[in-house]
Amino acid sequence: MSQRDPGSDGNERPGCQACEFDKGSRPQPSPGDYGLAEMLGALEFPELVIVGGHIGYPWTAEMISLATKYPSVYIDTSAYKASRYPRELVDYLRGHGRHKVLFGSDHPAWPAADCLQDLPSLGPDDQTADLFLHGNAERVFALPARLPLREPAPDSTS
Questions:
Q1: Is it true that the peptide bond before 108 is cis, omega within 30 degrees of 0?
Q2: What is the pTM of this model?
């Protein structure tokens, strides 16, 4: 047994081990809130996938630093419309963080269509938009690749 994980027998098991910390957007922390100190579980359990919710606000810069430093730390955008993403997150998404940010909406309170209405104005290229909207989640959570929304049209040349 490992000191890091008392229940571990040392054998690797396939599958996705992930947790999401609701970083929240309350102006005052409340008892039981997970702070960035808890995010440092990435040091102790590097195989654990950690997703910081709600863009890490009000600690977005720190969340970006953690996602940049630790391969298993990611950021989601739940509870935010694209028009409200902080500039530092937009820059990260369009730059070296394109593989580290996952779309989230908080549906039904924030429907996905409402959250994504202004995404084109942020200027992501097609690859970044695909990664953000589905590709990163598929990879991080070991999901099957996105299926086409409709069958391709039959080839009329045959």
A1: yes
A2: 0.74
Sign of the CA dihedral 115, 118, 124, 130? positive
What is the Cα–Cα distance from 136 to 146, expressed in whole angstroms? 11
CA 151 to chain centre: 29
The answer to whether 106 and 134 are in contact (CB under 8 A) is: no
- Boundaries of every domain in the chain: 17-23+50-118
Could you report the per-residue pLDDT of 24-80, keeping only the tens digit for each?
555 555 555 555 555 567 777 788 888 888 898 888 998 999 899 889 899 999 999
Q: Which of 128, 8, 136, 127 is nearest to 72 (CA)?
A: 136
- Contact between 55 and 75 (Cβ < 8 Å): yes
Going by the DSSP 8-state scheme, the letter that residue 28 receives in this structure is S
Strand partners, 75: 52, 101
Mutual angle of helices 60-69 and 87-94, in 10-degree steps: 20
- CA distances (Å), origin 57, targets 13, 93, 133, 136, 142: 33, 15, 20, 20, 26
